[in-house]
Amino acid sequence: MSTFTEPAPTATALLLLGKGSDAASEKGVDCPGELPAPSDPDLVARARAAKEALGDRLFILGHHYQRDEVIQFADVTGDSFKLAQQAAARPEAEFIVFCGVHFMAESADILTTDDQKVILPDMAAGCSMADMAAAVQVEDCWEALTEAGVADVTVPMTYMNSTAAIKAFVGKRDGVVCTSSNAERALNWAFERGEKVLFLPDQHLGRNTAVRDLGLSLEDCVVYNPHKPNGGLTKQQLRDAKMILWRGHCSVHGRFTLDSVRDVRERVPGVNVLVHPECSHDVVSAADYVGSTEYIIKALDAAEPGSAWAIGTELNLVRRLANRHADKQVTFLDKTVCYCSTMNRIDLPHLVWALEELVAGRVPNQITVDAETARHASFALDRMLALP
Ligand code: 13P
Ligand code: SF4
């Protein structure tokens, strides 16, 4: 079968991966102590030795978008749902090192016991989508819903990709968290309890789930823009809508367009187009299959040898799948490089640094959510974990 063709590099993507860039700016923030040099030939051996020294006290979680150099050290890899489940299922591990992004580590802290410590190897590993919904903006939105007389019939629901404060907002108002692998079930749950849903912060996952999975129409959805008074919506629009979508998105999945889908169908006859539901509605509508990162992996595992796949999600995962499925033709849906720059902040030097700090008896980059926020957020997270 043909080998994977690397998409064309862009200057920014390479900079974010630390190639040909200013080494000092690549260190991220808040990394006290000595960060090993990326060129250190002993990095793999050092990571192995630190992991062995920590033994059962350590549990490393790795999201599928992590670099290969990091994912090789994960005890469990998964999508955000599986990683949340796994974090909650390891009460014996003293240290949970989260190779993923900040909102995932926060959720892990909420779901673990008070004695367990969650560590994010680089504090600069955030998520631009999660940053698109600030608690104060969401409070304003709720106020607008109250003034329109619809807050009482609206169930708030947040995608996992949100801060702990947003999850707490949702928990306080009897709502639910969802991930890309259970959004349909969570949305059905919400519509059994209310007439409307306020979906935070990813408008695309909200719209795709409502229209594609629940059969609502695009006209049932409105977009609340936190940068405009009343979200840029009239009271009547809020009253008429079934889905009030927060104006947030993932810039990585925003790279895939309808043209990318058309183009790959022309280039690769018979190709199966498989995308993540954070892609826009027109991309998802034009795709053959849609699902979370775990779904994407399982779809490739189950695919016939010789079949062709164009995948619209982060490049580290797509390249790994291409390497693992040499008997299938795997193509990246975009023509240019498309990494999640913040996920890529966690590299081997940061992982080695974090593990060696733990061996030395220091706890670096601990992620802690305050007790009040955690109490409300865990209500909405536990509800998600208990969905049938
Ligand atoms: P998954 O839950 O599908 O792994 O997605 C997480 C994510 O951040 C995708 O952008
Ligand atoms: Fe956030 Fe998008 Fe990166 Fe996922 S891929 S962590 S949504 S920026």
UniProtKB/TrEMBL annotation:
Pathway: Cofactor biosynthesis; NAD(+) biosynthesis; quinolinate from iminoaspartate: step 1/1. Its cofactor is [4Fe-4S] cluster. Pfam families: NadA. It catalyses: iminosuccinate + dihydroxyacetone phosphate = quinolinate + phosphate + 2 H2O + H(+). Coiled coil: none annotated. InterPro entries: NadA (IPR003473), NadA_sf (IPR036094), Quinolinate_synth_A_type3 (IPR023515). GO terms for biological process: 'de novo' NAD+ biosynthetic process from L-aspartate. Binds 1 [4Fe-4S] cluster per subunit. Iminosuccinate binds at H63, S80, Y159, M160, N161, S180, H276, P277, E278, T293. It is found in: Cytoplasm. Keywords: 4Fe-4S, Cytoplasm, Iron, Iron-sulfur, Metal-binding, Pyridine nucleotide biosynthesis, Transferase. SUPFAM superfamilies: NadA-like (SSF142754). Its EC number is 2.5.1.72. Gene3D superfamilies: NadA-like. GO terms for cellular component: cytosol. Catalyzes the condensation of iminoaspartate with dihydroxyacetone phosphate to form quinolinate. Belongs to the quinolinate synthase family. Type 3 subfamily. HAMAP family: NadA_type3 (MF_00569). This is Quinolinate synthase. It comes from Stackebrandtia nassauensis (strain DSM 44728 / CIP 108903 / NRRL B-16338 / NBRC 102104 / LLR-40K-21).
